[in-house]
Amino acid sequence: MRFSKRAAPPLDNLADLRAEIDRIDAEMHALLIQRGSIIDRLIAVKGTSASGSAFRPGREAAMMRRVAERHRGLLPLDTVEGIWRVIIATFTYVQAPFSVHADISGGDAAMRDSARFHFGFTVPYRPHPTCAVVIEAVAASRGDLGIFRFDPRGAKAPPASEAWWDGLVGEGRPKVIARLPFIERPAHPAGTPVFVVAKPLEDPAAAQRDWVLHAARAQGWTPEAERALQDLYGEVVARATPEDGAERLLLAVPGGVGARQLREALERAGASVGALDETGSHAARFRV
């Protein structure tokens, strides 16, 4: 049996298509240069080059949502997200240079992948042995970020030996500003769930408060207290080994739930809540 060969496209069509690709590439490069010129003006107007105040986690989350919503065609969303993350992070770095400090106590590979996917290769990557060291490195910096992984199973996860979130408690201490990835989906190339911490943002409006995190110490934490938290649409994000009979918890609740409302709901359920300190906030998870 003879098989006929598929006819090759006319050379002039191939040449036209390649020329069109070259034109689009040149236009994309020109737009990046144009974006850079606007960043120059931002630096002059805002003076961010020395302050580390260029982070806008709420704006970044909104941008990534728009990218996912408008995307179509053959190019994988993974690639598009990665390109946009590199553009956003690199231009932020140009405005105010920073490093990303990573807790690698659970392994370096996943954290390095997360840092490179979300912040690119221009931003320096600094590995550290524990969450506490990461938090202190951020606290001592002019405007660095820290990333550390957590188990989104929350209460079902085994307790950590230390309540690392205690390092976020107090005025002027670093706070959670984002949860990555912004776009969640199965088989995400950098899908390890991580919190991003930074010094308190100079502009409170730059924060995104869809979810607010609280460090809590509670006596008598029972299934009833767990259900009371769930009734507020909250969750236990992490727990540490109990100390002096008190549970040490990191709680996440919707931004509309205040600390007083949270405390009262838990105490009605039988939990005696001692310390309850806000440790940051982040945008709502956007799933594809």
Describe this structure in words.
Strands 2-1-3-6-4 form a five-stranded mixed sheet, sandwiched between helices. A four-stranded antiparallel sheet has the order 8-9-7-10, covered by helices on one side. A two-stranded parallel sheet has the order 5-11. It is of the alpha/beta class and 288 residues long. It is built from seven helices and eleven strands. The termini are far apart. The protein is elongated, with a radius of gyration of 23 Å. The chain is 38% helix and 23% strand. Helix 2 runs antiparallel to helix 3, helix 3 (77-95) packs across helix 4 and helix 6 packs antiparallel against helix 7.
Short description:
38% of the residues lie in helices and 23% in strands. It has 288 residues and is an alpha/beta fold.
Which percent range describes the beta-strand content?
15-25%
User: How much is the average pLDDT?
Assistant: 89
Share of residues in helices: 25-40%
Element order, helices and strands? HHHEHEHEEEEEHEEHEE
Which sequence of strands runs across the widest sheet? 2-1-3-6-4
Rg estimate, integer Å:
23 Å
Low-confidence stretches: none
Helix count equals 7
- The number of strands is 11
Write the layout of secondary structure elements.
Elements: H1 11-46, H2 57-70, H3 77-95, E1 100-103, H4 108-119, E2 125-128, H5 131-140, E3 145-149, E4 175-180, E5 183-184, E6 194-198, E7 211-219, H6 223-231, E8 235-243, E9 246-254, H7 259-268, E10 272-282, E11 286-287
Parallel strand pairs: 1-2, 1-3, 5-11
Antiparallel strand pairs: 3-6, 4-6, 7-9, 7-10, 8-9
